[in-house]
Amino acid sequence: MATILTAGEAVARIAYLASDLVISVQPSLATDSEFSTFLRSYTQRKAPGVVSKDLPEVEAVRHNADPLLSVFQPIRNGKIVSVTANSSILLPSIPHLYKLAQYPVVIHVSLQPSVYPDYSEITAIRQCGFTFLQSDTLQESQDLAMSAHALALKSGKGVIHFFNGGNLGQDDPIPYEDRELLKQLLDVDAARRFQSTKSSETTIYADDGRIASLSVVGSVAQVNASPSSPSRPSQAAEKVPSTPVSANARSNSSTASDSSHRNSSEGSGRASSLATSIESVTTRPVTFEDIDRMLNGIWAIIKDATKRSYEPFSYTGPANATSAIFLFGADSALFGQAIDEATSNDVFQKVGIITPRLYRPWIGLKLLSSVPKTVKKIAVAEQIRRKTTKWGPVLLDLLMSMKGADLEAGRETPQIVGYQLGYVEPVTVRQALRGIFQNLMSEKPLQNLEVGRSQGPNLQEQDYVLEQPDLENAYMKMLRQVFGDRLHVANQLRKDDAGISSQLAANPEYGFGKLIARSEHRQRFINEVKEVVKTRDFTTDAPNKWLKKWALEAEDAEKANATASDVIMRLSTDGSPAASKLLASKALFYREANWLIGSDAWAYDLGNSGVHHVVASGQNVNMLIIDSQPYSEHAAADVTRRKKDIGLYAMNFGNAYVASVAVYGSYTQVLQAMIEAEKFEGPSVVMAYLPYNRETDNPLTVLQETKKSIDLGYWPLYRWNPRAEEKGEENFQLDSERVRAELQAFLKRDNYMTQLMKRHPQFAANISESYGSEVRATQKRKAKDAYSKLLEGLYGAPMTVLFASDNGNAESLAKRLANRGKARGLKSMVMSMDDYPIEDLPSEENLVLITSTAGQGEFPQNGRAFWEAVKTSTDLDLTTVKFAVFALGDSHYWPRKEDKIYYNKPGKDLGARLLALGGKSLTEIGLGDDQDPDQYQTGYSEWEPKLWQALGVDKVEGIPDEPPPLTNEDIKIQSNFLRGTIVEGLNDVSTGAISASDAQLTKFHGTYMEDDRDLRDERKAQGLEPAYAFMIRCRLPGGVATADQWLKMDAIAQNLGNETMKLTTRQTFQFHGVVKGKLKPAMQAINKALMTTIAACGDVNRNVMCSVIPSQSQFHADVYACAKRINDHLLPSTTAYHEIWIRDDDGKKTQVAGDAVQDQEPLYGSTYLPRKFKITIAVPPHNDTDVYAHDIGLIAIKGADDRLEGFNVLAGGGMGVTHNMKKTYPRTGSMMGYVSKDNIHRACENIMLVQRDHGDRKDRKHARLKYTIDDMGVDVFRTKVESYWGESFAPAKSFHFTSNIDTFGWQKDENGLNHFTFFIENGRIEDTADFPMMTGLRELAKIHRGELRLTPNQHLVLSGVPDAQLPEIKELLKKYHLDNTDFSGLRLSSSACVAFPTCGLAMAESERYLPELITKLENAVEDAGLRHDSIVMRMTGCPNGCARPWVAEVAFVGKAYGAYNMYLGGGYHGQRLNKLYRSSIKEEEILDIMRPLIKRYGLERKEGERFGDFCIRMGLINETYEGKDFHANTAEEEEEEE
Ligand code: SF4
């Protein structure tokens, strides 16, 4: 039989069964309480409750986030709520307790610390109006938990059930109590009545007069109407039957208890529905007699069922005992056992023990009746550690009970003696009892004797464990970085603070007090120094001079700290007593950076006073308040839990520095705010955002939540310095650029709403919503009516086309369909589903619905409300409506077979629902599939004719031809050499975007328009345009930059981008997050750094790459010169770039639009190339540039003089592929032959020209050089190039590659200069709290005089450091941990593209995920003994292949969010393509495949055998011989062919 081992489980189970909602208070969301694991398991098992109509809910709340605030809203909405918590929440919750006492809430409290709890937390709240029940054994904890719930429901009043879980854990296991008994105990009728009521109370501050009351029927009201005069419990109470009171009321029983009935509402005279029409009904507050009577009834039921009986006071001991001990606290079982075992020599033999079960209301008479008449003396032992009165509260209770009690005959008033009970161990319990009873028996017993130890064992360890979530350490690390040794956090967790519990020491108010004391201490020290200076008591002269200087600057942190060490040094050599005295407090010479750390608990009412005290004090104290509430949680938040805006609160004070920051939003801004806060003389409040749902959330989730919150204005980044004006600066700095407009709009609206609410207070909280919905409804109606009006003049049948569209395809299809309908004479109207007034649906004649598919088979945003209405409506009658549905989706979007149902689900659901509502289908549903040759158009072109046929308009003559869609080729031709309307687009401030055709053209200028994918859905939901921003890619041949250029790039990223830089796989700088307004300044800044961006993207020759070869400087110089020559030779000639980006804005110098400027493009012509074109140079033996993977790959050949002689030329390499489209494939370059170095640019030019003229310009998926060569044949192509060029390729020379990865660490070149290759994971240069890499590199660039070279594997080489500068450089490297290259071989050889959040083509994460995946594989690598072995692993977010995945030994290519195709068998030095091994696999499967494979490789590989080769030898994958063979003999067919 299942058994219960702990009180936590016993109580959690009953709370769950007896509630609609359990508020589970936990130390942190990642740390369980003694109840929470059980509660969670019930929820997970979906265990049914006893009183809840649906499944009971459990809500976890942090202990310091004002947990009882969570009770109000649900309980007022008729939910039966209970709370499981420990005693630490009670005192801070006192204001809530007084109000909640009048609701039937049950709070189960486990006393803390569990080994030696402090009962003062109970006695301190004894007057709050709750009923208090105490459990002393494990069995009692279950029985009294049931009693508590039953009593709360019956009485309508709150019950606190408390117990010492630590003691109860020693008891024998108990069985689970039968649900039936609980059902019997709980007044289910009362529960239902409560659940059906809604309370109108809203305030949680003021007393609203609510009093739990009873409806009393007929004359019975008089029976119990004597609240002030305690009476003996009536016999009737003892006879309370075992059925709920209300049920008996119906049977007209005549007992007092049967005829009263609880009224759940305040002071209302509402009669119980059970009252008969002839009886009069009155209400009165619930009295202590009612509680006593109800509890007796409850306990009678328990006794009937279990034979266990309970009384308000429990007495154990002989019936003729003459003395007894009243225990409040301590382990009564332990005391009981000692008394039982007492011998005649023991003074405590045959004494009784009294313990309270019903602590409040305190029914003194019950106490007397429980204790034998023979008892003459009672010792009252209270375990109250925080004593505020001379006499213990329980002692006073007893004294009051005895005083003037109406004693029965033969009973004397016992003598009462109070004791303070300390910690009593099993071995000292006899000693304690002896002390107590010897005193008690003495003639003049002493009051208030202390018994036991005042300190419990290992208090700190036993204490309730507070945890600072790991995530929040980010801010702590930054504080340490900024302030170093000066940092003093006054309320730091886990910091030893003698004699203070860790909970108290972490309390901000405590910390504040400590800081004040510290600052006063230092002030005294300063005064002391000033005095000492006057006395000149030093042996030497120096101390006086330095101390004077120091005393003047003591309050200026920078100056005082700079002088401090000098002062200390002078004092140390002085040797005088005066000097020694000062040195004893030498730490005070430094001025600390004083910080208090708090959580968003301070934003709730109960914690807010902490902020208030600090701000109001005006003291120079800095507060860092970490807010972790995610945006999504905020959006769904319970209104009564709404937090105070601490920032605004502090700003209103006017004397505080306030900043709102987010480490995952802007690292730099956090640093800035921390420094400014510390400098500010006065209180500073830094509100730091770090949203997470669970402390175990990974950083990516936190980053995404942060971005959403900042972008949507929920967490704007700003800094407020009330004294900035004095320096002529703005007080308020808004640092989150993008929200500026939205924030302003919000403020305006907020202001308007405030006015409105003032005028119409009755609408109060609901006004904004109802106003908004009203406006939306009116807008819908207006739009529809306007449309109808427009259509009035037209003839023909009506056709309403409604669309739901996320990416615009469904919308443009709908609009095109409506236009075509018009051409066929139909009165067609088109609008988004959510703009359509749903009530008009039944009056439609012909309805066409076009929807795409979002997320997990969901409706796109602008169709969700429509679908909800259609889905849930029961009164839509569509019997006269004819409809057709076309759905757009991707049959391969969902990798798992069981998820296939999501393919086009919205369209299918809609069709089925309209049929169910009586609609008639015009034609069967059309399914557009992105996997079809023409994507969704394939299905659409079959479906549309059927629709016209069904509508009878298929044979209409004379329909005009539609213009063909604009192609990229058209855009290029019409652009006037890449001008288009880019300038107009840049000047349009109404949108963050530029037009679609300009977006194609800007690529040629080196910039792509993107939108932040992390924010896309949320912004759509808010009706905002996507968060557009631009990526800028520099053109940097060979990846060589000077240190000065690095600093300039760094500044661009900081000031104009998103504070990060990407070093790309094409050896260049890439900036992301540049908003439109900053695009031109960024371009100008790049050009000022003597770089350009022209032709960094687009259908032109891109950045020419070249090996970095740090060890051969001379050879590098030769090769690099060629790379530059080729780069410059193939640059486009258009002047549009300079016109648009570089020239001044005065409008005079140039005319940018129109045809006024006629450029010439001698190499490219007006249509440029059919597709992008890439050239790279590799220097054997390192193929670090992946020479086979580019349109042209040049292999440098050394001459006899060790100088560059020429190149072997490869042509036709390329990576881009489309999933499931076998006509696309990656390809390695084909050998053309050898060309001398002087001629190489001409050879490249002519290869490019053949591609220009023969590349496929109709199908961009077939336009790369690789297809041109395969279509022509390699030899024909070579001949064609030679005929263009007029020269021939010589036979290729021999070469040998050994790897395609970088060599990390220091290398020396032949000139004696040093080069250091950093490991920059996936090329991302950024600062994080753990690793301020960007700052480190900036500091390095400031002193470095050589170059910084970007490697094609996205790493970085500090190039050309002379020996003399080595120590300085090495020290800096060490300081910023930049010298760390001690990573696994797997990580060092890995590479990922950007993908989310900026790349518009990404289907899955890449750069943000690969590092995590590698971490998960590193154990396997270690176990296999492969830590130092390199396995080339690459990942990309889509098959475009930016990180060149197809030549990696193992690759993962994004297929859908979280799903990847896996490829194996690539050549170690990039010479061989890999092949599909598994399609659409998720992390779990990846790990399941990779871990054993790595192990096997470790065990079974041959000497020197590479991973890719091993996979082929083992037969895991077939070898890929060439591009055309890529899709053949794969290990798994892609799903379309299944
Ligand atoms: S491979 Fe795809 S997802 Fe990755 S950056 Fe390139 S286009 Fe974007």
UniProtKB/TrEMBL annotation:
GO biological process: sulfate assimilation
Broad enzyme group: oxidoreductase
Low complexity composition-biased segments: 246-258
Key words of the record: 4Fe-4S, Cytoplasm, Heme, Iron, Iron-sulfur, Metal-binding, NADP, Oxidoreductase
InterPro entries the UniProt entry points to: Flavdoxin-like (IPR001094), Flavodoxin/NO_synth (IPR008254), Flavoprotein-like_sf (IPR029039), NiRdtase/SiRdtase_haem-b_fer (IPR005117), Nit/Sulf_reduc_fer-like_dom_sf (IPR036136), NO2/SO3_Rdtase_4Fe4S_dom (IPR006067), NO2/SO3_Rdtase_4Fe4S_prot (IPR045169), NO2/SO3_Rdtase_4Fe4S_sf (IPR045854)
Biased composition (Polar residues): 266-276
Residues covered by region (Disordered): 223-276
Record-stated family: Belongs to the nitrite and sulfite reductase 4Fe-4S domain family.
Its job: Catalyzes the reduction of sulfite to sulfide, one of several activities required for the biosynthesis of L-cysteine from sulfate.
The protein's assembly and partners: Alpha(2)-beta(2). The alpha component is a flavoprotein, the beta component is a hemoprotein.
UniProt name for this protein: Sulfite reductase [NADPH] subunit beta
Organism of derivation: Viridothelium virens (Speckled blister lichen)
